[in-house]
Amino acid sequence: RRLYFDTHALVCLLEENGFTTQQSEVIVSALVKIMNTNLDMIYKDMVTKVQQEIALQQVMSHIGGVKKDMIILEKSEFSALRSENEKIKLELQQIKKQVTDEITKVRADNKLNLNLEKSRVKELVSLVTSRNISIPSNLQIWHAQQDRALTQTDRKIDTEVADLKTMLESHKLDNIKYLAGSIFTCLTVALGFYRLWI
Question: What's a Pfam family in this record (predicted)?
């Protein structure tokens, strides 16, 4: 153990200031003992370089393990999200197909009903004109009723189509909300892991 001052110079300095050689040597030896005990106390609390390197390697291995766990978790989270998104896409496509099928079916049914009504009206008009029956007021009333029925069915078709469109839009919005929530959840998990790394 090194002493960072010159003991002989200190002895000489004490002798110059009136101490005897024996007194000076006793004082210097007492100072050396005090310094040694203080250094012993300091060295007990200090860590050696080897211990420090071992602790650093342990910390680095823990960080490496955490990184591996985070990568595995991140991959599993993203794969789960991808599979969920694929399921949602398939469901959306099925719903869209069902809605379009329903719309075409409703339109076809209504066109058929309209065509049947028109042909019935034409037959009645031709029957009335061929027999020269003069019931114009009743025929006009009946014709007006038919027109009203046609407009009502047109309105029903329009409202059904609008309802189907709003239902499709609401499904789209729900899926977009779910996707946004999933993305934000993944981002928060990734940021949490990132903060753990730092």
Answer: CCDC90-like
